[in-house]
Write a structure and sequence with these properties.
The structure is a homodimer. With about 450 residues, chain A is of the alpha/beta class. In chain A, about 45% of the residues lie in helices and about 15% in strands. Chain A has helices spanning about 15-20, 30-40, 45-60, 60-75, 100-110, 130-135, 145-155, 170-180, 185-200, 220-235, 260-270, 275-290, 300-310, 315-325, 330-335, 360-370, 410-425, 445-450, and strands spanning about 90-95, 115-120, 160, 205-210, 240-250, 255, 345-350, 355-360, 385-390, 395-400, 405-410, 425-430, 440-445. Chain A has a four-stranded mixed sheet with strand order 1-4-5-13, with helices on both faces. In chain A, α4 (about 60-75) crosses α10 and α16 runs antiparallel to α17 (about 410-425). The longest helix of chain A has 17 residues, at about 220-235. The N and C termini of chain A lie far apart (about 55 Å). At the A-B interface, α1, α3, α8 and α16 of A face α1, α3 and α16 of B.
Amino acid sequence: MSQSPAAVQTFRAIDVIRKKRDGGELSRDEVASLVNAYTLGEIPDYQVSAWLMAVVLRGMTRAETAALTDSMLHSGEVLDLSWLRAKKVDKHSTGGVGDKTSLVLAPLAAAAGVAVPMISGRGLGHTGGTLDKLEAIPGFNVNLSVTEFRRVLETCGCAMIGQTAEIAPADRKLYALRDVTGTVESPYLICASIMSKKLAEGIDGLVLDVKTGSGAFMKNEKDAAFLAELMVETGERMGKQVVALITDMDQPLGRMIGNALEVVEVVDVLRGEGPEDLRQLCLELAGWMLHLGGVADSVEHGKRRGEELISSGEALAKFRQMVELQGGDPRAIDDPKRLPNARHTKKIVSPKSGFLVSLQCEHIGTACVVLGGGRERKEDPVDPAVGIVLHKKVGDAIFAGETLATIHYNAEAPALRAGQLLETSYRIADSPAQKTRPLIHRVIGRVTEKLGDKN
Amino acid sequence: MSQSPAAVQTFRAIDVIRKKRDGGELSRDEVASLVNAYTLGEIPDYQVSAWLMAVVLRGMTRAETAALTDSMLHSGEVLDLSWLRAKKVDKHSTGGVGDKTSLVLAPLAAAAGVAVPMISGRGLGHTGGTLDKLEAIPGFNVNLSVTEFRRVLETCGCAMIGQTAEIAPADRKLYALRDVTGTVESPYLICASIMSKKLAEGIDGLVLDVKTGSGAFMKNEKDAAFLAELMVETGERMGKQVVALITDMDQPLGRMIGNALEVVEVVDVLRGEGPEDLRQLCLELAGWMLHLGGVADSVEHGKRRGEELISSGEALAKFRQMVELQGGDPRAIDDPKRLPNARHTKKIVSPKSGFLVSLQCEHIGTACVVLGGGRERKEDPVDPAVGIVLHKKVGDAIFAGETLATIHYNAEAPALRAGQLLETSYRIADSPAQKTRPLIHRVIGRVTEKLGDKN
């Protein structure tokens, strides 16, 4: 429709929608005007959802992605942690099954002298969430005010909370709309959502753990690498040191899935025990956090320092301190019986002998949701006690009748359904898989070149 | 996000959005469920606008387009005109500048014994609307009830009204949403919108006039032909005889633009006078209407019959009858002074001699809007008296100082702006254009093959 030649030229949402629909590149001002007007309620959901769908199908340039991230970041409060002498480094994972590394890394990096102001999310769908895991610890409060958050951070060097109303309100509003309009699955929108929240934490550096495999949102490595590169470049454009590790999520990480069970495994790792894959990934990520945080010359040095802090008990002491500062019962750390325990357990046994060649990771996550340990809808409650313990991982030899997994449950019907899901998740063959997937597929980030590091 | 395996499978808008987003083909049921739920207010605007944008960018198959048209058609009342012995045929134009053919064709076809139940729209943007032109006739009522509409149709064989609340309510709701979400420009959505309303008229045949050129929505012939084929095939799938003429809109049709002025030109054509391009197009479209209406063996025969009905005065008498039946003053037909007249006129003169090689058609339509003769927003009022008379058309020789156009206006400031627009619309060269654009570019429709017609 033609415009009257004398029409005043101001921001009109429809022009921005059309430009993106036709494959154009939006200016920084256009992106900012759209985000600001939406956050203030000046443009309706139905215009923004049309724009979001155009973004999903047309994509965004790097400059547009940075502009979107920046607008969302500045839609709310950006924490000023410059009063902390230590460098501030966070870690973010794109989500997986059994991924409890955040609970290990925050105290571990803090014990090394890096400040970790970690703002996390809840589990949704087949993936777990850091906040749900923390809340399995009796009394642990993830809803600190910004003032309380600062105090915990100052006292022990790390603090772990949920998103506050002040941080990136544009993201909260946009995410709720994306969730119901089929516009979640865009690397550009995912990047802006993650990076705006993380950069609002006032950090200097960020280690991204981008998952790939059957239990990840990005099933193939190419998509994971694309998202990783996008996030790294967006962070770098905003003056932050960012590195992304593409890590494996083709089977659950560690052996425990379920909120209280995962806390137990976290404590195991902080004691120098725990399953090897989880321990290795934690050390690798810690190596990067310590390096970006300026307390290790190299990632290798950071890993060794991490191992020392675990051996010395300092990392576990830091975890105990943080739990106590955030209102949690520190005795639950040393005595798993003080964590929520499910009333019943039941074993899944192998019908045949052979080698475990694959574990359908998303099904295992879904089995935990079915038990009540996760949520399908944001408003669902979570049962912290239920979950699954895996006794066999990919590559293991199995005898007929041997226990593959133990289900921890509180109600019979969900346990039956979870059992059925688990039984279909195991692929057992006569010989082991020819190729094993690496734990760490790739490392992405300019920082890797600058360092001349072994990684 | 994975679903619990036991989740109940019912219609969910988000699944349909995702399927279209990912390029899938929606089933008839999926399309119908979406349209029905939206019409009933069961799904929100923001989900439907995301789906509309996915349709704009992913397109639709012919089956999906037919399903969408069918769902929209059956969202409201479908007129049953089977009690009329005559065949019911309508004509629809995609809109242009100076396009007043509907006002000629309805009485002309009715005079030939074809019933014309015409439901039309208002002008928007640079294009005029049939309802605004009819309302320039003092007293003419376009808001008849369905009962009154039937009575006029029965009495004189044609009736011309605006869209009623009962006809295709899904289209009204969807169009309002498309208008504000940048999702108007999709041939699939345009096709479903037009065809659902036209087929709700209970017609047997439809002649489509798809405009192409600088004054049309489809600037190039390829896009116009694509839309035409889509509409013809959709109509044929629903058992109707449909033909589409791709006709020229690179300059205004006829010489008059503006509501009352166009009524004057309509009467000229019905008297056997008027400009040649308008007269030729009316006869061509009438030829097709009479042929589809079963009162002419061929289009050529239909054209000749149309000429006879004009010469005999029967077509004009039919127009006079319809005007009177719909409350209009029939004396205004024979005496233009009884139509609204603008208070002032002013001439646009040529600065040089030469040949008129092109007329920027959209600018001329916009000039009429600026004068108050059209509307930028649906709620704007329209001044029926103002407009533009073109004294020169493409191909004409021009002497310096000769009048190119006369502006009919009621206020000075808009007339100045309209004059500036007009002055920039004329391209005058030393020699005539090498190629002249045909009035009728192509005829599309299976009916053309079956007939072995000369067209």
